[in-house]
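Slide 14.
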Amino acid sequence: MAISNIELKNKMYYVYDEKQKEITHNWENTLGELKGFSSELVVFYRNKMFYIYDEKLKEISHNWENSLGEFRNVAGKTITFVRNKMMYVYDEKLKELSHKWL
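Slide 15: predicted structure.
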Protein backbone atom coordinates (compact mmCIF):
# COMPACT_ATOMS: atom_id res chain seq x y z
CA MET A 1 0.00 0.00 0.00
CA ALA A 2 1.17 3.52 -0.76
CA ILE A 3 1.61 6.39 1.67
CA SER A 4 -0.75 9.22 0.83
CA ASN A 5 -0.54 11.41 3.92
CA ILE A 6 1.04 11.70 7.35
CA GLU A 7 -0.52 13.75 10.12
CA LEU A 8 0.71 14.75 13.56
CA LYS A 9 -2.18 14.72 16.05
CA ASN A 10 -1.86 14.78 19.84
CA LYS A 11 1.90 14.07 19.65
CA MET A 12 1.35 11.00 17.47
CA TYR A 13 2.13 10.53 13.77
CA TYR A 14 -0.58 8.79 11.73
CA VAL A 15 0.22 7.27 8.32
CA TYR A 16 -2.61 7.02 5.75
CA ASP A 17 -2.95 5.15 2.46
CA GLU A 18 -4.44 6.47 -0.80
CA LYS A 19 -7.97 5.83 0.51
CA GLN A 20 -7.15 7.83 3.67
CA LYS A 21 -7.32 4.64 5.73
CA GLU A 22 -4.89 4.58 8.63
CA ILE A 23 -1.95 2.25 8.03
CA THR A 24 -0.22 2.76 11.38
CA HIS A 25 0.73 5.32 14.01
CA ASN A 26 3.53 5.99 16.49
CA TRP A 27 4.58 8.59 19.04
CA GLU A 28 6.35 11.79 17.98
CA ASN A 29 8.99 11.40 20.71
CA THR A 30 9.79 7.89 19.41
CA LEU A 31 10.10 8.92 15.75
CA GLY A 32 11.41 12.48 15.95
CA GLU A 33 10.79 15.31 13.49
CA LEU A 34 9.14 14.44 10.18
CA LYS A 35 11.39 15.69 7.36
CA GLY A 36 9.50 14.28 4.38
CA PHE A 37 7.72 11.33 2.84
CA SER A 38 7.00 9.75 -0.53
CA SER A 39 4.50 7.07 -1.47
CA GLU A 40 7.06 4.49 -0.27
CA LEU A 41 9.29 6.03 2.42
CA VAL A 42 9.20 8.30 5.45
CA VAL A 43 12.20 10.31 6.69
CA PHE A 44 12.48 11.39 10.33
CA TYR A 45 15.23 13.28 12.17
CA ARG A 46 16.06 12.50 15.80
CA ASN A 47 19.18 13.00 17.95
CA LYS A 48 21.32 14.18 15.00
CA MET A 49 20.40 11.11 12.95
CA PHE A 50 18.15 10.57 9.95
CA TYR A 51 15.89 7.51 10.07
CA ILE A 52 14.22 5.93 7.04
CA TYR A 53 10.96 4.02 7.59
CA ASP A 54 8.53 2.09 5.41
CA GLU A 55 4.75 2.69 5.28
CA LYS A 56 4.26 0.71 8.51
CA LEU A 57 6.89 2.84 10.28
CA LYS A 58 9.30 -0.09 10.38
CA GLU A 59 12.87 1.21 10.34
CA ILE A 60 14.78 0.47 7.15
CA SER A 61 18.00 2.37 7.88
CA HIS A 62 19.59 5.30 9.70
CA ASN A 63 22.75 7.40 9.58
CA TRP A 64 24.31 10.44 11.21
CA GLU A 65 23.50 13.97 10.05
CA ASN A 66 27.22 14.80 9.70
CA SER A 67 27.63 11.85 7.29
CA LEU A 68 24.57 12.68 5.17
CA GLY A 69 24.32 16.47 5.32
CA GLU A 70 21.19 18.59 5.04
CA PHE A 71 17.99 16.82 4.01
CA ARG A 72 16.69 18.07 0.67
CA ASN A 73 13.98 15.73 -0.65
CA VAL A 74 12.49 12.24 -0.76
CA ALA A 75 10.97 10.84 -3.97
CA GLY A 76 9.93 7.24 -4.52
CA LYS A 77 12.69 5.17 -2.93
CA THR A 78 15.40 7.86 -3.16
CA ILE A 79 16.47 10.47 -0.64
CA THR A 80 18.51 13.57 -1.50
CA PHE A 81 20.91 15.38 0.84
CA VAL A 82 23.31 18.32 0.37
CA ARG A 83 26.75 18.24 1.99
CA ASN A 84 29.88 20.31 1.27
CA LYS A 85 28.35 21.95 -1.83
CA MET A 86 27.51 18.55 -3.30
CA MET A 87 24.14 16.89 -3.80
CA TYR A 88 23.96 13.20 -2.89
CA VAL A 89 21.18 10.77 -3.82
CA TYR A 90 20.74 7.66 -1.66
CA ASP A 91 18.48 4.62 -1.77
CA GLU A 92 16.26 3.57 1.16
CA LYS A 93 19.20 1.80 2.82
CA LEU A 94 21.20 5.04 2.56
CA LYS A 95 23.55 3.58 -0.02
CA GLU A 96 24.84 6.34 -2.31
CA LEU A 97 23.43 6.18 -5.83
CA SER A 98 24.92 9.38 -7.27
CA HIS A 99 26.35 12.78 -6.47
CA LYS A 100 27.14 16.06 -8.24
CA TRP A 101 28.57 19.49 -7.51
CA LEU A 102 26.13 22.31 -6.89
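Speaker note: Helices lie at 28-31, 65-68.
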